Target: Oxoglutarate/iron-dependent dioxygenase
Amino acid sequence: MTQVSSVKQLVESGCVKSSVPSSYVFPGDPDYNSIVSDEAEGIPTIDFSLLTSGNPDQRSKVIKDLGNACREWGFFMVTNHGVPHKLIDDMMSGSGDFFDLREEVKRDYAGKTLFDPIRWGTSFNPKVDKALLWRDYLKIHVHPQFNAPKKPAGFSETLEEYSKKSREVASELLKGISKSLGLEESHINKKMEMESGLCHQLLVVNLYPPCPQSEVVMGLPPHTDHGLLTLLMQNQLCGLQVFHHHKWVPVKPLPYSLLANIGDHMEILSNGEYKSVVHRAVVNSKATRISIGTAHGPPLDTIVSPAEELVTRAPAYRGIRYREYLELQQSYQLNGKSCLDRLRIN
Ligand SMILES: O=C(O)CCC(=O)C(=O)O
Ligand SMILES: [Fe+2]
Model:
């Protein structure tokens, strides 16, 4: 399965009119059932403006809500985040335009390794994936070194501006999360060097073309994200599902909101107080869905281990260099929390 064309190209070639090649049939995951909840409204919403400019009462309430959201869901919608709507629109259209470039142009970015500054590809890691995923991606390391594809015109500027805004939002949320854990407001940002200019930020654009047999393929299988906090924007199509109380809860994107979720390194840092939550992306048969995530983590050589202040008896995870964790995750199939499980003590 080494030389695989993009899903977009496969769809546009017209060869998948009614059924998909068997290499794309996703065998399911015994650890996760397929019950989809009808309760799509449950994901909590956090009004970001109250965190940054609310009065003291509003601020302490929103910090409490943030803590509950992290503990109960690991996911929350962020509204009034201050990222201009136009910037969100430009990110979506620029991303769509990138995937619309000719395959030969995109192939310039067909990187091979995780730390290639820009990498366009398909599936997750076709060498190990148990089935090919109905997903193409563009992954860009946007910080501390900014990178961007040269085309489409203007995309680089949009990416740079959005990456910066996304770091600002993440860093404010991390202040609130730090407080909600009973730590000093700046604890996480300082320890993880989130504001030192060295933090690591990976931007991932996921493209899920429409699929004639959407029920047998998978966009992204059940997984958790690396890093401390991911911020995700989506075009207005459903597809993301969060595994909550043994059911898949579909996320209905609120226009122009950002969806935040706790990553594995927040679970490590908080010694399991806040847990990264398994999620997946299913696809649809009608339209192309695009999601854009930014994963925020410490500098790649930082060892992340449980904060001493939060270890009451014993650390529940061994520390690991951020870089090594990314390598570990990339070398296996994406499968629930299997990567984080390797670090659990006991
Ligand atoms: O497409 C989505 O909504 C989910 C994307 C995601 O989970 C990821 O990129 O890690
Ligand atoms: Fe994810």
